[in-house]
Amino acid sequence: MNKKEAAAYLNVSTRAIERYTSQGKLTPTYEKGRTGLAPVYDQAQLDELKKQMNEAGDASHSAVQHDKPAKHDKHDSGNKDGALVLRSGSRADLAAFIAALDKAHGLSISDIAAKPLLTRAEAQRYTGLSRELLHEAVTSGKVKEVKLGRAYRIKRTDLDAYIEQL
Questions:
Q1: 36-75 burial: b if 16+ Cβ within 10 Å, else e
Q2: pTM for this prediction
Q3: pLDDT-derived band at 157, boundaries 50, 70, 90
Q4: In the 8-state DSSP scheme, what is residue 81?
């Protein structure tokens, strides 16, 4: 099965197939094609990977679901990409929900709190302030941003002092 057929079989992109190959999850054989060597994927390996993907998806899907607004719903409250929603209340489900949140947002709050300089997105997560309120605090001079090359960072200590003033 070629790369495109394997991607259709697993219901992923061809780039995902390349990623699985580089991670060692798939090992193709190579046959001569029109423009060079072309990867050919084994059906048994694809079946095994599909089984693993379904098992991993079932485990996380039971506790955590993405809420996506209906296309015909005009009152979607601005949520375009879907939010994570906890569907049941067991401790295992809560742990899976927290793990999914950390995966969706990158660093955990404790990781962010340990950093001395924060991006605006990290500052938002750390403080819980809206993007607009944080932007207003920076432009008014209540919170200073430091320029590092092309990037701007906010000192966590300045952010903590600003929060204390609120």
A1: eeebebeeebbeebeeeeeeeeeeeeebbbeeebeeeeee
A2: 0.40
A3: very high
A4: S
